[in-house]
Amino acid sequence: MSVYKPAKSRFWQFDFVIAGKRFHGSTGQASRRAAETVERQRRIEAATGTLGSVAAMSIDQAAGRWWREVGIHRGDARDVERRIERMVQLFGKGRTLAEIDQAAVALAIERRRGQVLIRSKKKGARQYLPSNATVNRDVVETLRPILKRARTHWSGKGAAHGLPEIDWRDLRMREPRALSRVYSADEQAAWLDACPDEMKAALRLLLVNGLRFGELFFHPDQLDLDADEPTLTLQKGRKRDVILHVPLRRDHARDLAALAGRARAAGLPHLWFEERKVGRETKLVPFTRSQVEYRLTHAADAAGISGTRRIHGARHHAASAVLRRSRNLKAVQALLGHASIHSSQRYAHVLNDDLRGFIEDDESRNIPEAARDETPQGQAGKGVAGK
User: Fold this and answer.
1) DSSP of 68-135, one letter per residue?
2) Is the whole model's pTM more than 0.70, yes or no?
3) Which domains can be identified in the chain, with CATH numbers?
């Protein structure tokens, strides 16, 4: 049987040729035996002429093919694979592309909206419903590129694809506009004071350099701690093909250098770790992402900083602080690594707020001048001058 398992996927793939035509894609199976069963069925479908038809493809087949051709090469491949699995479950593996119309997508969205999330394994943990942004990402943004590729790449030249037209704009759920958050000097100091020593450098990177939470987990080798121009190099973009050089403050670079040296010597994947007693030895154990997130949010609680998305709010804070000092949206774009200046324009309100302050200050300076003209003395003076 011609099945194989790619390095970045837990699913087995099929790849065979019948009558000079190649057929390949995901079996959707994690075990070899189950994958071989699916592969035999695909061979039968290929021999009878039903596998090659785009409209007759199941959503599972289409998702597997798109994953092989596009998804597996993206920088966020692991997240994409999870979303594909969830999306296929919403529609059912056997649903053909011809059956996926406006009503079917709307029903899948409703199903996803009703799936509760549990963020803790503790008994009686609180349940959450997914946000509109999560639903859009799991259904609309995952299915749309698959169907688009089926129309443009998988149909023969000049052949009708036979897929229903879908109004994606009508289906997309409304998402709240992103809010920009700025922390006062007292809030920043309180947050840093409450933060564990091993996490202070991470919090400074968030507040000063505007890193995303996931970008904190960089390898020690990504640091260039030159005494004059210390820099952190990040790979961004879906394919990790965009290189961003983040300038670091020299005092922050010294703290990072100490952490990087210990992490590199211990062979750790990133800089955030704790010392743990293992038998008679003391070893450095790297924190998981959830452990880092807990320490940062717990410190925010202790500092009296309330609200949602406080960690991501540090990115907004850094962008707003740079914009106030530079008066330049291009500087914000460079700081945050935005591909387009349009993504940076959400922070333009900072300039508008400052402009409003300048206008009001100017008005307040003019008020006494106008007020003096309305005083009785001013009127009397006019009267005397008139006489």
Assistant:
1) HHTGGGSTTHHHHHHHHHHHHHHH-TT-BGGG--HHHHHHHHHHHHT--EE---STT--EEPPPHHHH
2) no
3) 3-171 (no CATH), 185-351 (1.10.443.10)
